[in-house]
UniProtKB/TrEMBL annotation:
<protein>
    <recommendedName>
        <fullName>Adenine DNA glycosylase</fullName>
        <ecNumber>3.2.2.31</ecNumber>
    </recommendedName>
</protein>
<dbReference type="InterPro" id="IPR004035">
    <property type="entry name" value="Endouclease-III_FeS-bd_BS"/>
</dbReference>
<dbReference type="GO" id="GO:0000701">
    <property type="term" value="F:purine-specific mismatch base pair DNA N-glycosylase activity"/>
</dbReference>
<dbReference type="InterPro" id="IPR003265">
    <property type="entry name" value="HhH-GPD_domain"/>
</dbReference>
<dbReference type="Pfam" id="PF00730">
    <property type="entry name" value="HhH-GPD"/>
</dbReference>
<dbReference type="InterPro" id="IPR011257">
    <property type="entry name" value="DNA_glycosylase"/>
</dbReference>
<dbReference type="InterPro" id="IPR015797">
    <property type="entry name" value="NUDIX_hydrolase-like_dom_sf"/>
</dbReference>
<keyword id="KW-0479">Metal-binding</keyword>
<dbReference type="InterPro" id="IPR005760">
    <property type="entry name" value="A/G_AdeGlyc_MutY"/>
</dbReference>
<dbReference type="InterPro" id="IPR023170">
    <property type="entry name" value="HhH_base_excis_C"/>
</dbReference>
<dbReference type="InterPro" id="IPR044298">
    <property type="entry name" value="MIG/MutY"/>
</dbReference>
<comment type="function">
    <text>Adenine glycosylase active on G-A mispairs. MutY also corrects error-prone DNA synthesis past GO lesions which are due to the oxidatively damaged form of guanine: 7,8-dihydro-8-oxoguanine (8-oxo-dGTP).</text>
</comment>
<dbReference type="GO" id="GO:0006284">
    <property type="term" value="P:base-excision repair"/>
</dbReference>
<dbReference type="InterPro" id="IPR004036">
    <property type="entry name" value="Endonuclease-III-like_CS2"/>
</dbReference>
<keyword id="KW-0227">DNA damage</keyword>
<dbReference type="GO" id="GO:0035485">
    <property type="term" value="F:adenine/guanine mispair binding"/>
</dbReference>
<dbReference type="GO" id="GO:0051536">
    <property type="term" value="F:iron-sulfur cluster binding"/>
</dbReference>
Amino acid sequence: MNPGKKLHEWYLIHKRDLPFRKKKQAYPIWISEVMLQQTRVNAMLPLYESFIKRFPNPESLAQAEEDEVLAHWKGLGYYSRARNLRKAAIFLVQNYNGAFPKDLNLVLKLPGIGNYTARAILSIAYDLPLAVLDGNVKRVLSRYYGYTENILSPKADGDLQKKADEFLNLEHPGDHNQAMMELGATLCLPESPKCLLCPLSEDCFARIHQKTSEIPVRVKDKKQITLEGEILVLWNQNCILLVREPKMRFLKGMFHLPYGFTGEVPEETYESTPFFLSLKKSLPKDSSPIGEFKHTITHHKMKFSVFSLPWEDRALVAGLAKELGVESKWVTLSSLDTEFPSSLASKVKKFLLYLES
Ligand code: SF4
């Protein structure tokens, strides 16, 4: 029997009886996947049940007030996820009659849905052949294939996604993805994996070569990187410009205030984008920042200067954004935290409130 088949048979016998797996429906799978990003299954289940009872479908979630959605998110933390769920539900109702599009690229455009969640929803609900890659799956795959590069490096994501795609059981992609996650959570544990019970043990590189304690390789880059950055707040009719740029080092996939780093940067990926540099040209040479603050993201210590820039012509920004493949939108100051759900937004907002008063 091939390894994919063995894994599938193991999954059918050992899968947990979870409410969101009862039917192959995208909505409950989506809600459960987002909840599970921050909470263990047992703690999440009662919160899931009450959330689904109140918001049983995308329509009910889309119609609800944000405050009520947040109230039902209590106990799960990371409230931006709940806000994004509601926003995505509104988008689904307005554009797809409340159903999930069966297309990875379209699902990835929904607020708050990243590669892992999109693949999980589409494979589990619709059996689309899309392999997922989360921490558990990375561990299983590196041991199974004997992948000895640092799994915390960006390269490993690409390498292991290829292996996940190769290993995917095309007859049962949804079950396969869940089986891989379940295997990582219950047998292929970080310490002392239970190889004797594992359906993949016969072909597993790490088990055969007794390297389960050495694989996966996890090397944390502890070197601190110091960066100086600038944030531009463009104003037009009491609205502020937010952008989403495809190749950003930080805040990937998220609408954010235009920012860039100044001076020497450690590598190309930190360089300011042409879009940011074009906007910055409009800043008068003698401009002083309206405020400065410090911010840390993983091992990056940053100091940002915030510049306010009244902007008359929205069409100019739209044209420039289009030319450079950047998405842009104008939002009110009061919605800044929800449109740009990062602590960076709150730090900038303090200076803007001061400007308004
Ligand atoms: S045999 Fe052991 S190391 Fe290999 S996948 Fe199974 S549990 Fe993990």
